[in-house]
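Propose amino acids for all 290 sites.
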């Protein structure tokens, strides 16, 4: 079993109540708030060899905004904790990247913390508003639903690969450092759909999204590889690369017809597991603890 999944099961089994767990966001229905928490660690999620403090801050914030967007909520507030070998130059550059990013999405920084440590750790809590919105859950996929996607898969992983190979700047490297988000289309999904739907972003890869939804919804997901939007011819990176932050959605046929811009890549069926071109594929995804 994937070590992260094993840890999450232990946590769920240990807690008296785990009803808020299971999706990338917790939903506080009495306040119509979606809340997500994320941690990024130097040399695990980013490297100073490849990114500036400005770029690190921008991507750290975008990663968290993406979780709120694919929940169906509108991002509103953010808190950031920094631990590391901090100095004035780093703080200035980092918070400039943060400010430019949250201004673009009309998000307010409302607090945080600074501490000393041997390497940089970024801890982010983000809150979103989902009043008058239909919220996503991984458990909402149903038989005969459409499997849809937006964006392009594999481009970020290709960019990281290029950086590791010594390249400095190209389309894929920029995609990796500054991944586009899909605020308009996720908002349309949240406001126009009438039926329950499942939506995730491909932070840990397209296949991981499909697997998570299949497992939580107890359904089979069939995908046609040729229909997946992509700009590279590398099946491994397209399916398993990750860090694209592209929405992957399972929604009813009627709701799919309402949302322009969605690309159909497959269908939901009775059964279990993820099938690519009618062949079942075993789980592969980013291993956070290896």
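Proposal:
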């Amino acid at each position: 079993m994937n070590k992260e999944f094993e840890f999450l099961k232990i946590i769920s089994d240990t807690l008296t109540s785990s009803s808020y767990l299971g999706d990338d966001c917790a939903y506080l229905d009495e306040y119509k708030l979606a809340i997500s928490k994320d941690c990024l660690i130097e040399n695990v999620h980013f490297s100073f060899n490849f990114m500036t403090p400005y770029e690190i801050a921008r991507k750290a914030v975008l990663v968290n905004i993406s979780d709120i967007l694919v929940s169906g909520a509108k991002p509103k507030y953010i808190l950031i904790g920094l631990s590391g070998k901090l100095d004035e130059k780093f703080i200035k550059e980092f918070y400039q990247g943060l400010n430019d990013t949250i201004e673009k999405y009309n998000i307010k920084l409302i607090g945080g913390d600074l501490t000393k440590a041997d390497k940089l750790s970024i801890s982010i809590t983000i809150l979103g508003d989902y009043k008058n919105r239909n919220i996503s859950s991984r458990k909402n996929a149903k038989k005969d639903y459409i499997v849809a996607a937006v964006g392009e898969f594999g481009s970020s992983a290709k960019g990281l690969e290029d950086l590791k190979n010594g390249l400095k700047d190209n389309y894929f490297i920029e995609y990796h450092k500054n991944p586009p988000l899909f605020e308009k289309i996720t908002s349309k999904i949240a406001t126009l759909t009438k039926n329950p739907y499942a939506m995730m972003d491909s932070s840990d890869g397209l296949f991981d999204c499909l697997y998570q939804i299949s497992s939580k919804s107890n359904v089979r997901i069939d995908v046609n590889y040729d229909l997946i939007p992509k700009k590279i011819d590398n099946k491994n990176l397209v399916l398993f690369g990750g860090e694209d932050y592209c929405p992957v959605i399972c929604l009813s046929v009627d709701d799919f017809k309402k949302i322009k811009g969605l690309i159909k890549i497959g269908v939901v069926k009775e059964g279990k597991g993820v099938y690519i071109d009618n062949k079942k594929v075993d789980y592969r995804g980013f291993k956070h603890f290896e």
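The radius of gyration is 19 Å. The chain has a mean pLDDT of 92.
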